[in-house]
Write a structure and sequence with these properties.
By secondary structure, the protein is an alpha+beta fold. The chain is built from three helices and eight strands.
Length: 151
């Protein structure tokens, strides 16, 4: 699905113009057919108007560029409260928030860590304060990471 990168490069300027960031592009088959999903976010929260604007403009661009050669539905949404963390910059941005981090290899005989993001050291080591103390996770070992919903 090399066209996902092409979709991202077409959508990025539109999303930025709307004052948002492009978090993720997904293209997957679901029960109702193929879905092209753009996940957008901004610090103030994503509004319905943001989603409509991005959907309309990106939809027009995709039609003109003829990037996808099959029927699909375009969806634009926010990442939600449990948004994925995609890089050291996300960890910095959400410092102080609760996160769940899954590692590729065991660290202290664990693969799953839940704790508060303390810092990002040297732009490549995540310091996560867990109930057992602070664990330092090299970003290269992060398999998946998401914010945890805090009530």
């Amino acid at each position: 699905m090399e066209f996902v990168g092409r979709v991202a490069s077409l959508a990025e300027p539109v999303v930025q113009e709307a004052g948002c960031e492009l978090v993720e592009v997904q293209f997957q088959r679901e029960s109702r057919g193929w879905i092209l999903r753009l996940i957008i976010d901004n610090d103030k929260g994503v509004t319905l108007d943001d989603c409509v604007r991005v959907s309309r403009e990106v939809g027009n661009l995709l039609e003109i560029e003829d990037v996808i050669d099959q029927a699909y539905n375009l969806e634009v949404s926010s990442p939600g409260l449990d948004r994925p963390l995609r890089g050291p910059e996300d960890f910095k941005r959400f410092q102080g928030r609760q996160a769940k981090v899954v590692t590729k290899e065991s660290i202290d005989r664990q693969h799953v860590f839940i704790g508060r993001i303390e810092s990002v050291e040297n732009n490549d080591v995540i310091a996560l304060k867990t109930e057992h103390g602070t664990v330092r996770i090299p970003y290269s070992q992060v398999s998946k990471a998401r914010l945890e919903i805090e009530l």
